[in-house]
Amino acid sequence: MTFSIVARCAATGRFAVAVASSSPAVASRCAFARAGIGAATTQNITDPRLGPQALDLMRRGADAQEACAIVRRTAPHAAFRQVTVIDAQGRTACFSGGRTLGVHAMAQGVDAVSAGNLLAGPEVPAAIVAAFEASDGDLGQRVVDAMLAGLAAGGEAGPIRSCGLLMVDLVPWPVADLRVDWHDEPLAELGRLWAVWRPQMAAYVQRALDPTEAPSYGVPGDE
């Protein structure tokens, strides 16, 4: 009931996660990223502890494959879980437990990894990664477009209802955390939200670092 992409921008070092599901509020449970460390998803019958665990392991020096292997070996009920990981060098890893739901698949590429379960077909993650690899420029737009390519390739077996985009950069908080928690066309709505947020994102970071140097949007100082 979920498909996703975890990706890195080699030029900027940013990480982004985009995820979509038939279930509500999917990004609140499944998407995790830390600046300078990496990003991860935990999905299928989701255990939200696994994403932070993978990031903690990478912070302590594990690469993506090592972190993913440890999570798989130590996670409670690992057979039910599906996890993807990318590290600071763009190395990727993933696993799908033996009790992952329905048609499920994973795909790894340059600076990106995708996985899904209860899919319309096993080609969906590969379509997501291929679309990401064929693109360039802004990381947020690339992952949104990659997810739309996954939807065009079939997406889930049923309709999706929620999605989200999480992005980290140089500061210790997410520079983008956009969520569509229940919508008839959530990925299209996510694209609209990104178009609104993208030109304002850097200014909100600058407000936090030095408000005297930051431009304002709307009412000065309005959050």
Keyphrases for this structure?
223 residues; 10 strands
General description of the model:
- With 223 residues, this protein is of the alpha+beta class.
- The chain has helices at residues 26-30, 50-59, 64-74, 124-133, 139-152, 186-197, 201-209; strands spanning 2-8, 15-21, 31-34, 38-44, 81-87, 92-96, 105-109, 112-117, 162-168, 176-180.
- The strands form two sheets. A six-stranded antiparallel beta sheet has the order 7-8-1-2-9-10. A four-stranded antiparallel beta sheet has the order 3-4-5-6.
- Strand 9 and strand 10 form a beta hairpin.
- The longest helix is centred in the middle third of the chain and has 14 residues, at 139-152.
- The protein starts with a strand and ends in a 14-residue tail after the last helix.
- The model has no long low-confidence stretch (mean pLDDT 95).
Summarize the structure.
This protein has 223 residues and is of the alpha+beta class. The protein has helices at residues 26-30, 50-59, 64-74, 124-133, 139-152, 186-197, 201-209, and strands at 2-8, 15-21, 31-34, 38-44, 81-87, 92-96, 105-109, 112-117, 162-168, 176-180. It is globular, with a radius of gyration of 17 Å.
Task: Furnish the topology, listing elements before pairings.
Blueprint: E1 2-8, E2 15-21, H1 26-30, E3 31-34, E4 38-44, H2 50-59, H3 64-74, E5 81-87, E6 92-96, E7 105-109, E8 112-117, H4 124-133, H5 139-152, E9 162-168, E10 176-180, H6 186-197, H7 201-209
Antiparallel strand pairs: 1-2, 1-8, 2-9, 3-4, 4-5, 5-6, 7-8, 9-10
Helix pairs in contact: 2-3, 4-5, 5-6
